[in-house]
Design a protein that fits this description.
Strand order of the largest sheet: 1-2
Oligomer: single chain
Distance between the termini: 39 Å
Shape: globular
Number of domains: 2
Largest sheet: 2 strands, antiparallel
Number of strands: 2
Strand content: 5-15%
Helix content: 10-25%
Order of helices and strands: EEHHH
Structural class: mainly alpha
Number of helices: 3
Radius of gyration: 15 Å
Length: 130
């Protein structure tokens, strides 16, 4: 496979990766909504005619990420609501050591559990989105 930083923990695909457009829909017969519609960065998938293999859809630049930025910092998947899907995206970003600033909910320059706590409080209605 061709990754951005192979062995360094960044598994975003490169333009020449054979994993691009090589995925399949693994839904069982008569199943619905079993294939993820967003990747770990919150990018909608598939971008082309087929899914990319792996946790990330290939994007040619950071402009693709900017095009999907939410209208509110807490709505990470830009679906119009702040909910458990946004929390999962944030947790995935922390675990994958993402450097995407959209996940820094409390805007302290760090991506950590304080962001998770802030997002959970927003979801529970205890605080407005920072």
């Amino acid at each position: 496979m061709s990754f951005t930083l192979q062995g360094g923990g960044d598994y975003h695909l490169t333009a020449s990766s054979p994993a691009r457009n090589s995925g399949t829909n693994l839904c069982a017969p008569n199943s619905q909504s079993c294939v993820p519609t967003i990747d770990f960065d919150g990018i909608s998938r598939p971008k082309d005619s087929f899914y990319d293999i792996g946790a990330y859809e290939y994007t040619s630049s950071t402009l693709a990420l900017a095009a999907t930025l939410p209208s509110t910092p807490c709505d990470l998947n830009a679906d119009g609501s702040t909910d458990v899907v946004d929390a999962q995206l944030l947790e995935n970003a922390i675990l994958s050591k993402s450097d995407a600033t959209i996940y820094d909910i409390n805007r302290d320059g760090q991506l950590n559990l304080l962001d998770v706590q802030a997002l959970q409080n927003v979801i529970l209605g205890k605080i407005p989105c920072p």
